[in-house]
Write a structure and sequence with these properties.
By secondary structure, the chain is an alpha/beta fold. The longest helix is centred in the N-terminal third of the chain and has 9 residues. The strands form two sheets. It has a five-stranded mixed β-barrel. A three-stranded mixed sheet has the order 1-6-7, with no helix packed on it. The N terminus is likely disordered. The protein contains three helices and ten strands, in the order αβββαβββββαββ. A hairpin with a 5-residue loop joins strand 6 and strand 7. It starts with a helix and ends with a strand. It is 14% helix and 30% strand.
Amino acid sequence: MRRLAPLLLLLAAGCGTTVSTTFSSVGEGATVEPGASATPLPPGDAEEATITLVNIGAVDGPGTSIADAIARAGAGAMTDGDLVNGNVLLKDAEGRVWLCDSLAAGSPPACAEPRLLVTNFPTNVGDFDPANAGVTGLQQDGEVLWLEGAHQLFGTVTASP
């Protein structure tokens, strides 16, 4: 099985930040939940929980779950940044990037909740470049692109209380 961490670290090295650290093989960890909520919200919807990536370089550690990061942010707990774990990075048809635990059933797929809308995601790392699919395991259904596997993103999480 391929490891994505070396590729993602190499791709991110050019921009001085690591925003996605994959520490398991492609295809492991992400599941499709038939009854899960996958209601996509319109761009800029203020009700969606977000993670704004922070350009600090490479980070590593145990991280926290998406649900815990959202709960802490919704309770008003401010941090300098959170290392948040997810199983899927998804780029929807509108070009928005999401961190989610699983995919909801459907075609094209969407993130099941809990999920985080990712802002400040760098465009020059190649994560969602179809030319890299043979190496990264990128999958596509229509205009939706996703990477399964364990991902960690570091940033500021905000959520509505």
